[in-house]
C-alpha cells in the first residue's frame, strides 16, 4: 500500500513559539518535496520560505498548539495538508499530505485492522475490502468489487434490515448490533455489525462497515445458557426453562381454543432405592425414568426435570379429557417392567398428578401446586397411578394436613415431653426415634442407635427376642438386660400404629431399675 507523502522535523526541546518552530530540522521524508515540487531543504524555516500555504499552516499550528488540517490542491489533485505532533519521535512534528481519493483513505485507515471492514458507496456497492474481510467471508476483493454487499452476505429474509442499517450508517452511524451474515459457501455466521459515514469535509462520500466475528463468544454463551436451563444428569430442560415452554403452549392453546395438560410425575419410593442401592444406582434410575418419559410422549411435548425425583410434562393441543387419559395410561404403562442394570433388578414405578390449563388455573405456579396435590393422591393409591386434580381432593388434603398437624402436636406433648423413656421402631425393628427421657435414663450416644436395627444395638438383643415372640402384649417385664455398661430390669408396653401401608411400634418403658453394674 502506497504511503501518503510526509516529512518529519525534530527539535532539541519542546517548542511553543513560531520562532522556535521554524528551527526544526528535517529528520526523514517520503516523497514530500517531490509531490509539492519543492526543493529539498533541511529546516522548516527554509521550507516555509518556499510555500506561503505551509507558512500559514505553521503559524496556525503554533497558535492552536494542536493538529491543523486544510485543503491543498496540487496539479488538480485534492489533498488534506496535515500538521501534527509526531508521536514516534520526541520533540518532533509531521507534515503530511493525505489524498482525498476514497480508496486511499480507506486503505490507510483499515488495512491493518484485525477486524473485517468494507468500503461502500452511498448505494451499498462495494468499493474495497480489507484482508480481514476476505478471511472472514471467504471472498476475494477483486471478485466482489462493484457488487451489492447486502445481496452477497445478508440472508434473503433480512435484506430490508441490511439496507436499513446502511442508511443509518450513512446518515449518523450506529452502535454495534448482532446479526447473522453469509460466507461465500453460504454458511451463516454470527457477527457484530457497525457502520459509519466516510466524510471529506461535510460531504458523505461512502460508508465504512465493520464486522466482528463472534462465533467463539456465541459458543460460550450457548454453553452457559444450556447449563443454566438444562439438567446436568438427564439433559432435560430444568425448571427455569419450564416457564418458557409453558407460556409458548399456553399462547398456542389460546389461539386454537385447546387445552394444555400438565403432568406432575414422582418416582415412587425413590429414597428407598437410593438408600438400598446407593446414589450411583439412584442416578441411573433418574436417567432411566427420563428416557422412559421421553419415549412415551410426542416430540412436541416438553419433559422437564423439576428437581430431585420429580418431573413435569407439558402436553399441547389437548382437546378432550379422553385424550389426556390415553396419554396418562401410556406414560404409566411404560413402567410396567422393572429396571435392570448389571446384577440389579429394580421395580421402578411412578405416580402422576394431572392439572389442566385453563380448567384448573391460568398460571403455571397454580397448575404445579394442583398437580402436586393430585400426585400425592395417586401415591396413596399405590404405584403407577394417575389422578386428575379436583377441588374435592384439595379439600380432603387440607383436612388430612390439618389432622396430621394436630397429631404432630399431640405426639410432641405425649412422646417428647413424657417422663417415661420411649422409643419408636418400624416393622423391621429399626430404631426411628427416641424421646428425651430415653436419652437421660440410658445415657446413650444417639448416633449409635438411630437407623439401626435392634439386633445391632448392644443390650437390646434380649429385648428383640421378646418383641419377635409377641408384638401384641400390653405389658412385658424382662430382667437383667445389659445396656450401656449397666444391667437393668425393664417393664414396657407396646402400641401399634399403621400409616401409608406401613406398621410402626411405640415402646414405652414404664419402669427401669438397675439390677447391678459391672
Can you put this structure into words, describing what you see?
It is a single chain. The chain is an alpha+beta fold and about 525 residues long. It folds into four domains: about 5-100, Beta-Lactamase; about 105-215, PAS domain (Beta-Lactamase, 2-Layer Sandwich), CATH 3.30.450.20; about 235-395, Alpha-Beta Plaits (2-Layer Sandwich), CATH 3.30.70; about 420-515, 2-Layer Sandwich (Beta-Lactamase), CATH 3.30.450. The protein has 18 helices and 22 strands. The strands form five sheets. Strands 7-6-10-9-8 form a five-stranded antiparallel β-sheet, sandwiched between helices. Strands 12-13-11-16-17 form a five-stranded mixed β-sheet, sandwiched between helices. The longest helix has 26 residues, at about 390-415. The termini are far apart.
Short description:
Helix content is 38%, strand content 32%. With 518 residues, it is α+β, with helices and mostly antiparallel strands. It holds the Pfam family PAS_9.
Amino acid at each position: 500500500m502506497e504511503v501518503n507523502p510526509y516529512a518529519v522535523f525534530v527539535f532539541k526541546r519542546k517548542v511553543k513559539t513560531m520562532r522556535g518552530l521554524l528551527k526544526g530540522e528535517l529528520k526523514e521524508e517520503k516523497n514530500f518535496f517531490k509531490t509539492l515540487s519543492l526543493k529539498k531543504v533541511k529546516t522548516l524555516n527554509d521550507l516555509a520560505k518556499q510555500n506561503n500555504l505551509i507558512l500559514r499552516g505553521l503559524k496556525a499550528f503554533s497558535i492552536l498548539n494542536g493538529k491543523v488540517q486544510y485543503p491543498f490542491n496540487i496539479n488538480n489533485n485534492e489533498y488534506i495538508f496535515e500538521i501534527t505532533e509526531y508521536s514516534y519521535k520526541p520533540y518532533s512534528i509531521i507534515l503530511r499530505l493525505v489524498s482525498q481519493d476514497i480508496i486511499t483513505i480507506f486503505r490507510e485507515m483499515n488495512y491493518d485492522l484485525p477486524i473485517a471492514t468494507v468500503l461502500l458507496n452511498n448505494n451499498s456497492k462495494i468499493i474495497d475490502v480489507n484482508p480481514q474481510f476476505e478471511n472472514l467471508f471467504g471472498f476475494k476483493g477483486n471478485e466482489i468489487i462493484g457488487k451489492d454487499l447486502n445481496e452477497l452476505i445478508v440472508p434473503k429474509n433480512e435484506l430490508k434490515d441490511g439496507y436499513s442499517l446502511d442508511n443509518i450508517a450513512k446518515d449518523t452511524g450506529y452502535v454495534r448490533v448482532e446479526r447473522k451474515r453469509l460466507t461465500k459457501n453460504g454458511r451463516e455466521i454470527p457477527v457484530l455489525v457497525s457502520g459509519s459515514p466516510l466524510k471529506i469535509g461535510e460531504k458523505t462520500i461512502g460508508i465504512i462497515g465493520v464486522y466482528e466475528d463472534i462465533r467463539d463468544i456465541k459458543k460460550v454463551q450457548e454453553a452457559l445458557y444450556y447449563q443454566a436451563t438444562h439438567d446436568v444428569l438427564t439433559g432435560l430442560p430444568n425448571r427455569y426453562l419450564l416457564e418458557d415452554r409453558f407460556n409458548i403452549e399456553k399462547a398456542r392453546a389460546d389461539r386454537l381454543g385447546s387445552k394444555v395438560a400438565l403432568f406432575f410425575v414422582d418416582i415412587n419410593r425413590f429414597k428407598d432405592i437410593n438408600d438400598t442401592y446407593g446414589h450411583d444406582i439412584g442416578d441411573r434410575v433418574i436417567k432411566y425414568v427420563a428416557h422412559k418419559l421421553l419415549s412415551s410422549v410426542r416430540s412436541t411435548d416438553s419433559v422437564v426435570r423439576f428437581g430431585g425425583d420429580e418431573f413435569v410434562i407439558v402436553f399441547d393441543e389437548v382437546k378432550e379429557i379422553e385424550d389426556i387419559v390415553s396419554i396418562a395410561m401410556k406414560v404409566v404403562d411404560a413402567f410396567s417392567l422393572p429396571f435392570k442394570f448389571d446384577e440389579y433388578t429394580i421395580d421402578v414405578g411412578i405416580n402422576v398428578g394431572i392439572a389442566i390449563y385453563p380448567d384448573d388455573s391460568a398460571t403455571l405456579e397454580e397448575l404445579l401446586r394442583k398437580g402436586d396435590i393430585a400426585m400425592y393422591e395417586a401415591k396413596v393409591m399405590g404405584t403407577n397411578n394417575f389422578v386428575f386434580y379436583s377441588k374435592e381432593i384439595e379439600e380432603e388434603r387440607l383436612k388430612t394436613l390439618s389432622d396430621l398437624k394436630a397429631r404432630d402436636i399431640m405426639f410432641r406433648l405425649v412422646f417428647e415431653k413424657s417422663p417415661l423413656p420411649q422409643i419408636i421402631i418400624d416393622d423391621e425393628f429399626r430404631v426411628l426415634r427416641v424421646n428425651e427421657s430415653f436419652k437421660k435414663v440410658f445415657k446413650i450416644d444417639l448416633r449409635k442407635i438411630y437407623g439401626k436395627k435392634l439386633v445391632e444395638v448392644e443390650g437390646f438383643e434380649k429385648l428383640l427376642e421378646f418383641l419377635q415372640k409377641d408384638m401384641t402384649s400390653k405389658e412385658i417385664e424382662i430382667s437383667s438386660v445389659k445396656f450401656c455398661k449397666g444391667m437393668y430390669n425393664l417393664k414396657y408396653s407396646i402400641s401399634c400404629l399403621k400409616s401409608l401401608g406401613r406398621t410402626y411400634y411405640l415402646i414405652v418403658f414404664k419402669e427401669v431399675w438397675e439390677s447391678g453394674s459391672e
